[in-house]
Design goal:
Elements (H helix, E strand, L loop, with lengths): L4 H6 L3 H7 L4 E4 L2 H13 L4 E5 L9 E2 L2 E2 L3 H8 L3 E4 L6 H13 L1 E3 L13 H6 L1 H9 L4 H16 L3 H4 L5 H7 L8 E5 L5 H9 L6 E5 L3 H10 L6 E4 L2 E2 L4 E5 L15 E6 L10 E4 L5 H6 L2 H7 L2 E5 L6 H12 L2 E7 L8 E7 L1
Parallel strand pairs: 1-2, 1-5, 5-6, 7-8, 7-13, 8-9, 10-12, 13-14
Antiparallel strand pairs: 3-4, 11-12, 14-16, 15-16
């Protein structure tokens, strides 16, 4: 049981607080994140008074009817304001910049999902309470439980301090949690431009049997081929990891934002990985909201080979609890939850090792 869950519920949920706050509410950042926060504010009837960007990005732009200003201009026009962070940051200099801004101003990072529409509000918590508790019960170590609790507090409050308190470098995870050998096959689902494949190869100093990297977006696939050209025993597959073999469509976005979409226009091949890959010792799932379907497509190899699983748990609001429960139905695993340096709660990963 999560001891503090009841206590968490007595604290103000971010969206409820913003409905009553007397200060003007402004958004820091543009793009998809800003659009999602604007939509949520509209849903909860929270007036937004302005949008600002870092000085180097302000060039007389207009976004959703708002003239983009600098923070100094916002302060001059509105005075003390509540800031809602609307973009992701993983570089140390940007995290430090946001941390400094939060120390001098009232700043929150609303938890809006990258995919799907569910917001982590009071109704969502009540509807999913039993599954949230069930996933927590699967966690194998005390630090994972602290990460889980802090993620819940962050999702409810939007306070970035809860994330900063539980950051873990990836190198620490690989040193302590994941067993490796020179005969390993690493399957990279959502390989993007090959960044994780390169990290794996460097970490293993070339001691592995094979890297198999799946990437459905053609532009990213070409970058994957180019960036991994010098890697030994690396095979790239232009396909999406899915629950069955079929033709699907991407949303038309580029880079990491390319994702499966029912009404997308870019046709791609989708495959069941367990019918394509004969053996795997480690599988990474970072497939932009399609983790559930990708895990379904790996059920056979998970039962047969019991690979370690590295599962992104932040694309959809329900991923934090639904994905470990899904894996546990397939085979018994130990679940370790880690949040790598990122604001908001992106790059939160379940590292699952077989029992």
């Amino acid at each position: 049981m999560i001891d503090d869950l009841k206590k968490m519920e007595t604290e103000a949920f971010l969206w409820e607080y913003l409905q009553t706050v007397q200060k003007p509410v402004v958004i820091y950042g543009m793009g998809d994140g800003c659009e999602k926060i604007l939509a949520a504010c509209k849903q909860y009837k929270i007036p937004v008074r302005g949008i600002f960007a870092s000085d180097e990005y302000v060039r007389k732009k207009v976004f959703h009817g708002f003239e983009i200003q600098t923070f100094s201009e916002i302060k001059e026009r509105l005075g003390d304001a509540v800031i809602l962070l609307a973009f992701g940051a993983f570089q140390k200099e940007w995290i430090d910049k946001i941390r400094a801004l939060a120390q001098e101003n009232e700043l929150y990072a609303p938890d809006v999902p990258l995919f799907g529409g569910a917001l982590f509000d009071r109704a969502f918590l009540e509807q999913n309470r039993s599954r949230i508790e069930a996933a927590y019960a699967l966690l194998a170590d005390d630090f994972s439980k602290k990460v889980y609790e802090n993620l819940l507090r962050f999702k409810l409050s939007g306070k970035i301090a809860y994330l900063l308190d539980v950051q873990t470098e990836k190198s620490e995870v690989f040193e302590r949690l994941i067993p490796f050998s020179a005969n390993d096959v690493f399957v990279d689902l959502g390989a993007y431009n090959g960044d994780t494949a390169l990290e794996f190869a460097e970490m293993r100093h070339g001691e592995y049997r094979e890297i198999i990297a799946f990437e459905p977006n053609h532009k990213s696939f070409l970058k994957l081929l180019e960036n991994t050209r010098s890697l030994l025993r690396c095979r790239a597959v232009e396909a999406a990891a899915w629950s069955r073999n079929e033709t699907l469509f991407l949303n038309g976005k580029t880079g990491r934002s390319a994702a499966i979409e029912r009404n997308g226009k870019t046709e791609v091949r989708a495959v069941r990985v367990d019918e394509t890959v004969p053996v795997a010792h480690h599988i990474k799932f970072d497939v932009e909201g399609a983790e559930k379907e990708a895990i379904e497509g790996c059920e056979g190899i998970i039962r047969r080979a019991r690979p370690s699983l590295w599962i992104s748990a932040y694309h959809r609001t329900e991923d934090l609890f639904e994905l470990p429960l899904q894996v546990q139905k397939i085979a018994p695993y130990r679940f370790h939850l880690r949040h790598h340096p990122y604001l908001p709660a992106w790059d939160t990963v379940y590292y699952c090792t077989p029992k």
